[in-house]
Amino acid sequence: MRLWIKDPIAILAEGAERGIVVEDGVIVELVGKGREPMLPVQATFDASRHVVIPGLINTHHHFYQTLTRAHPQAINKELFPWLQALYPIWARNVTPETFRLGTRLALTELLMSGCTTASDHHYVYPAGLEAAMDIQADEAERLGMRMTITRGSMNLSQKDGGLPPDSVVQDQDEILADCERVLSKFHDRSKGSMLQVALSPCSPFSVTRELMRESAALAERFDCRLHTHLGETHDENSYCVEKFSCRPVDYLEDCGWLTDRVWLAHGIHFTDDEVKRLGHACVGVCHCPTSNMVLASGQCRTKELEAAGSPVGLGVDGSASNDNSNLMEGLRHALMINRLTYDAASVTHHDVLRWATEGSARCLGRDDIGAIRVGMMADLAFYTLDELRFSGAGDPLAALILCGAHAADRVMVGGTWQVTDGQPHGVDTARLRHEHGEAAKRFLESL
């Protein structure tokens, strides 16, 4: 069926003033000003109440952390003490059941904010959670979202000089065996795929150099992406100098990770030379503005990284350091902190929209999503401007960011409506809120 999405208020695409035509989940035509579709359509959707943008793409998250939002033992702390407060709580309470609810809630929140593709970095593996990636694949399929499941890992615990407790890490052989299993089962590199896999050792302070190198070799075998935290805080830089006698980017290169297969979370504390090296290698960086502000981690050098050649994407980061899963809200935060970093003219709403769509798609290694163009998958987010916050807005696209849009009215993934009138299909949000809230109570029982 050919569907004409007709006459939007505004659309983030050149030459599509009268909308777009979707067929078999793909954008097949842009309908310009004063024109009609070139071929007959079988259905029309009146988009005259909507601003239409590509579906947002979240490139860094920790879904399970929705269960410890605003946790009394972790608020008002920076990264290392924040992790030290939460690791024991996660170790005791993350089970397959709570993990499934945390995943479901995070994906639902993302979808309702206009996100059509998500990547989650899961690295906590207490006993019994060996099927974490299977749970996430199942939940993404239920919601009809695209996902890059990142098989995270930690094998350097407190007894080895690392940060995490012994009970949430795994040994290297166990990690690599499951990475290979997950890649063989879920990694789909075809156009329009709903599920892909990345390998994601957690960070320099929680994995060994050998695991980093073995993960890179496995990624080459399976043609998948690599992801890790890097350059998030000054403490991390100091740790690398103390433990490895080099800075994080040098460590990355030594492990065989300075390639265009890699995207990094945060990427804040890089020198000018390191920015150039990362850009030359086309290493992507996921900017996490909300988390960076909550934990006072610092300000990502987005403009320099992008100018050097690094794809820049956006992520909400974990819901215990955000503390929500709303990517559209993250765009506004990205605009504000980057204007504070640079100036008002240097960072516009077009920049943050690009980071959250095309930039994020590049971080995930995808060229079939992230833009409204012929041949791209029909992943779209529709926002109304009916609320009081938008009254008087002159530029509809700028209004989404400056006036604080936070919920999509409709969301389409691969030509299929997954959100209508603000509600995700097939999800009882009141029941989800109750079940998730009950599960989260056990994370407070130690208080």
From TrEMBL:
GO molecular function terms listed in the Swiss-Prot or TrEMBL record: 8-oxoguanine deaminase activity
Domain Amidohydrolase-related intervals: 51-385
Superkingdom of source: Bacteria
InterPro entries: Amidohydro-rel, Metal-dep_hydrolase_composite, Metal_Hydrolase, MTA/SAH_deaminase
EC number(s) given by UniProt: 3.5.4.32
Keywords: Hydrolase
UniProt key word Transport: no
Record family assignment: Belongs to the metallo-dependent hydrolases superfamily. ATZ/TRZ family.
PANTHER family in UniProt: AMIDOHYDROLASE-RELATED DOMAIN-CONTAINING PROTEIN (PTHR43794:SF11), AMINOHYDROLASE SSNA-RELATED (PTHR43794)
Record-given protein name: 8-oxoguanine deaminase
Organism of derivation: Pannonibacter anstelovis
